[in-house]
Design a protein that fits this description.
Largest sheet: none
Strand content: under 5%
Number of helices: 8
Oligomer: single chain
Shape: globular
Structural class: mainly alpha
């Protein structure tokens, strides 16, 4: 199967996954007392469009493989987090806790991680605790400016992407991508006066963006400036 055909099929599957994700989010809204924000503009299209584009790019670059199949599942989950957090400023425990558990359980055979099964477990556990611990400390230092949901999300991403190999493991690359993206977008929102310095800007979507970018471009050189 050519990469173009694989990408088109993946994009079509992404549309379906996004539709199902949107419906799932509506169920979560009914279950969450704090999920009270009004819908985002054209919200029903967010997940289908994002999933279609991202899965298409993933399969175009990586083809059909165990890596791309598992990475696709992770990307769909991260897109769910993006949409829900962008609207409600919430990262749901009912999503993150099972996701973390599954990520740790499958780490010995995860195609996203590398090395022996022992090193994959070490990479997942180490990546989770390093990334989650970093954002837990940020949550404490900022007194809630960085939410605990971000810490749980970071733990999940660390368990999926791994804290090995050193010195710059995949999870750190993803966090750097997320921080850069968050800083640029926040700066633009402030410059255009869409947001004020005192306004809350959800950070979870940028973390997810960093993780998604890391999954898609892994193994491909990123051009320098």
């Amino acid at each position: 199967m050519s990469t173009i055909v694989a990408a088109l099929i993946a994009a079509a599957v992404g549309v379906l996954a996004g539709v199902l994700t949107h419906r799932l989010n509506q169920r979560f809204i009914a279950l969450e007392e704090d999920a009270t924000e009004p819908p985002l503009p054209a919200e029903p299209y967010w997940a289908p469009v994002l999933d279609a584009g991202l899965l298409g790019a993933l399969f175009y670059l990586h083809g059909v493989s165990a890596y791309s199949l598992v990475a696709a599942v992770v990307i769909v989950l991260l897109v769910q987090v993006v949409v829900f957090d962008a609207r409600h400023r919430l990262i749901l425990n009912r999503v993150m806790y099972p996701a973390v558990l599954v990520a740790l359980l499958v780490s010995p055979v995860s195609p996203i991680l590398v090395g022996t099964w022992q090193s994959r477990i070490l990479a997942a556990v180490g990546g989770g605790f390093v990334a989650g611990g970093l954002f837990y400390l940020l949550s404490v230092v900022t007194r809630g400016g960085v939410g605990m949901g971000d810490a749980k999300l970071s733990f999940f991403m660390g368990a999926v992407l791994g804290g090995l190999p050193l010195p710059v493991p995949p999870i750190m690359e993803a966090l750097i991508w997320g921080m850069i993206g968050g800083g640029v977008i926040a700066g633009l929102l402030l410059l255009t006066r869409i947001r004020k310095m005192t306004d809350f800007i959800p950070y979870g979507p940028f973390l997810c963006g960093g993780g998604i970018l890391e999954l898609i471009v892994r193994g491909f050189p990123v051009p320098g400036p």
